[in-house]
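Two quick folds needed for the group meeting slides. Do the first one here.
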Amino acid sequence: MFIIFGTRGIKHTVSESPVLSNSCPNCNDGNLVNKLYRRWFTLFFIPVIPLDTVDRFYECDRCKSAYNESIKTVLQRSQEEISENQKRATSVYAKALVASMTHMSVVDGNFAPEEEREIMDAIEGFPEMKDELMAIHKNVKVNANKDNQVFDFLNSARSELSSEALINILAQAAVVLLADGAIEKEEETLMKEYLIACGLPKEMYQTLIDKLKQKDMTEIKKEQLN
């Protein structure tokens, strides 16, 4: 009788290792499952005794792409970078928003209670930054655009944010412009300067105003119906 023995590698799933959901860099949708190759002693081609671990890696359960275990660290770092970028963008957005709204409210020399309420509502939308935004608001309220501070905030926003985000900032500034029911010449000129600072055509000014007026009329009609 011949006894046939030898060794061969068998792939196993590491059950105690968490699956990295929807993380495959190749197909984007696949889950990365932690695997290991273990060498087994075989008898008559049947695995009998586990020997050493040859390799550990992650394998996509969809496209079967394989990655070194370091992929987990790379993916975690990427998520941290994404989170940090989002946090920075939110900060830049909020600062530019409050600075421009406050500047718009004081440019005509008449800081109306309606304008103050709009700015406070905007600040409340960023509770984690409230103290910092209140400081910006008070500074711009007293010093306006001293040392070009408001336009510095807008320039930072232009370099960090999308055009859509910039338009949202200016739309909010336009809400302040309309809050007291009248548009002064200084406010109109300033809004056009904001558009240019954000890399947007100043002709967009009238489009912004028309849309906001239309929105206000729609809300008034809804209130009347209710």
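Then this one, please, same format:
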Amino acid sequence: MALNPGDSFPSDITFQYIPWTEEKGKITSCGIPINYNASTEWADKKVVLFSVPGAFTPTCSVNHLPRYIETLPTLKAKGVDIVAVVAFNDAFVMSAWGKANEVKNDDILFLSDPDAQFSKRIGWADASTGRTGRYALVIDHGKVSYAQIDTQRGVVTGSGADAVLASL
């Protein structure tokens, strides 16, 4: 079932994640993955969650993620507490992608959706690849206030930072 504006964010969503630390800040350093209970962590916050088909892929690395990095101060000024990106990649790859893009201090959380479990649950996994789809959600204190998916390959519109900003 797809999430729609007005829906409650599911109560049992856990991603994997490697917290950013200065001592593990180099791309060649590895941290230890931990579970990140999004349902609990986001219950009383305004969150922008965007999903990409894969870390280090062309559209995701050139068009999708950079605009979120650029607009992070504006998103925060509009009351967003947390910005997170999710992909089917494992937590090590997601952590390296954040480091490669010089995102520090968990300014954007790089979360792993193992086997695209969350994306499949909401019906927004890519059926042909089994990967996470390209979508964006705004979750405001446990309620979805924005939900858009881009289904055309290589196109970032409704899931992009500018569309999300316009919805805030």
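Slide caption for protein two: The chain has a mean pLDDT of 92.
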